[in-house]
Amino acid sequence: MEKKYSIFHLEGGLGKHVLSTAVAKCIKNNHPDRELIIVCAYPEVFLNLDFVDRVYRIGMTPYFYDDYIKDKESLIFKHEPYFTSDHINKKLPLIINWCKLLGLDYNNEQPVLSFNLRQQQIANAKWQREKPVMVIQTNGGPLQEQPYPYSWTRDIPYDVAQNIVNHFSKYYHIIQICRDQSNVLQNVEAHFESMSNMELFSLLAYAQKRILIDSCLQHAAAAMKLPSTVLWIGTSPVVFGYNMHNNITAELPNTVKLPDSYLFDYNFNGMVHECPLFDTNIFNINEIIESLK
């Protein structure tokens, strides 16, 4: 019997890849008789998933057409959900919108991550500390493409983050995840060095408390079923978030001017001239602390 294939091609950042594991699962559930082939930028996200048959990195697809397309019965799932009306107008969560765009019947599929034995062993050696671990991700985004070390649209303001650390540092070993040019908090162990993405994700499993931003770790926490506190500034938990998390949204001024915004309101990189803030008093610190308790 000749094999049939579902080919899922996706692009974008690491967090989008983790979220897309739910879409991949939905493709498999809708087409269980087809082998699922993934073409993406971060293959490691999919390698351990039992419903994925083969993973290719974008640009490294030798003989792909001959193997999966030519004279084959293949379904191609290669659409960009960011440029749909439902996403731009913040009507639907990204997972649901993506499945709708691909013509799939969505049945509450959620992101998933899986760690093989060696990944578990390495993580166990890397993240154990004498005190219970708390993770705070203050800064996110790609290390090379983002022009500023601090993005006002999604990074935690330094004084807000430090207040959180001051409250918990006596009882927890706090690990800060940030970019290499970001401000390091006091009384934390800062990590911004290069490590594998699976090593980074595994940190969440060793943390008793997690305070995150709209970046890859909040998607990974959802995939690992680890409820976390997630702070939102310029992006929407309705679109990118998960109900399992405690989502706390900043209060932004109404006097926002967006002269260079086209289809979206805020740029992930945080354009300096569009910043509406004149101080960092955008979160209720007590609400954050109570959510972590």
Report on this model:
The longest helix has 17 residues, at 14-30. The chain is built from ten helices and ten strands. 30% of the residues lie in helices and 17% in strands. Helix 9 (237-240) links the parallel strand 9 and strand 10 (246-249). The strands form two sheets. A six-stranded parallel sheet has the order 7-6-5-8-9-10, sandwiched between helices. Strands 3-2-1-4 form a four-stranded parallel sheet, with helices on one face. The chain folds into two domains: 4-101, Rossmann fold, CATH 3.40.50; 121-292, Rossmann fold (3-Layer(aba) Sandwich), CATH 3.40.50.2000. With 293 residues, the protein is an alpha/beta fold.
Give short descriptive properties of this protein:
six-stranded parallel β-sheet, 293 residues, alpha/beta, 10 helices, Rossmann fold, 30% helix
Mean pLDDT: 93
Total of DSSP H or I helical runs spanning 4+ residues: 10
* Cα radius of gyration in angstroms: 20 Å
List the secondary-structure elements in sequence, H or E. Answer: EHEEHEHHHEHEEHEHEHEH
What characteristic shape results from the CA principal axes?
globular
Helix content: 25-40%
Low-confidence stretches at least 5 residues in length (pLDDT < 50)?
none
Q: How many beta-strand runs?
A: 10
Query: In the CATH scheme, what's the topology name of the largest domain?
Result: Rossmann fold
What's the CATH architecture name of the largest domain? 3-Layer(aba) Sandwich
Report how far apart the termini are: 56 Å
Q: Specify the structural class.
A: alpha/beta
Strand content: 15-25%
- Strand numbers in spatial order across the main sheet: 7-6-5-8-9-10
For the record, what CATH class of the largest domain applies?
A: Alpha Beta
Question: CATH homologous superfamily of the largest domain - what is it?
Answer: Glycogen Phosphorylase B
What count of structural domains?
A: 2
Largest sheet: 6 strands, parallel
